[in-house]
Amino acid sequence: MNDDRDAPLETMWQGKYISALKRGRWEFVSRTGSTNAVVIVAEHEGKVILIEQFRVPVGGRCLELPAGLVGDEDEHATVEDTAVKELEEETGFTCDRVERLGDFHSSPGMVAESFTLVRAHGVRKVGEGGGTEHEEIEVFLVPRAEIPGFVASRRALGVSVDVKLLNFMNF
Fold first, then answer.
1. Beta-sheet strands, E only, within the chain
2. Count of CB atoms within 10 A of residue 37's CB?
3. Rounded (10°) CA dihedral 131, 85, 31, 17
4. How far is C-alpha 92 from the chain's CA centre?
5. Rounded average pLDDT over 31-60
6. Given its phi and psi angles, is residue 156 left (phi above 0), alpha (psi -120 to 50 degrees) or beta?
7. pLDDT of 80-116, one tens digit each?
8. Where are the domains of the chain?
9. What whole-number distance in Å separates Cα of residue 124 and Cα of residue 61?
10. Distance separating alpha carbons of residues 125 and 95, to the nearest angstrom
11. What is the pLDDT of residue 98?
């Protein structure tokens, strides 16, 4: 049996942000360097904070949980530091404490990237949000019970939906 686990890792192509890699028969992508992501579950007054922004890979707007890259601006940043920074930058909310819920992979057959899912505690409004000057982030506060209908309404408008919102769907 040919075991790809022991094959050498080859870089097929590398850009500024991503790399195309090969190990044995498997081709996959990874972020260039060792940058990981943090995804934030935050609620304010009984409503989950969601964001929507344009995403080039999906060719349109995408409904998501707030998130960011750990260490992309400060190599010493922690998951918790990044969660607080990204929550405020993207949504205009901050929090008192960040609880780690675990590390996850969204598409492990093709993408090496992992993310740490966190829950924000003590969430309060402190600013406008909307992201950086390169982002056009729209913020939504949606009651948990209404998320499936909200997702359906955004999807009907042609908005893509991040897989992490499955956490809130009632199947």
1. 9-14, 18-23, 26-31, 36-41, 43-44, 47-55, 60-64, 67-70, 93-94, 97-104, 115-121, 124-125, 138-143, 160-161
2. 20
3. 40
4. 17
5. 93
6. alpha
7. 999 999 999 999 999 999 999 999 998 999 999 999 9
8. 1-33, 34-168
9. 26
10. 9
11. 98
Q: What are phi and psi of 84, to 5 degrees?
A: -65, -45
Any bridge partners for residue 134, and if so which?
A: none
Rounded to 5°, the CA angle 19-90-59 comes to: 50
* Class level of CATH domain 34-168: alpha beta
> With contact defined as beta carbons under 8 Å apart, do 87 and 108 qualify?
no
- Residue 18, both tokens: 């991503």
pLDDT at 170 > cutoff 90: no
Count, residues in the chain: 171
CA distance 34 to 15: 14
CA 69 to each of CA 3, 101, 135, 168: distance values in angstroms, whole numbers, following the listed order: 32, 17, 15, 23
Q: How confident is the model at residue 157 (pLDDT cuts 50, 70, 90)?
A: very high
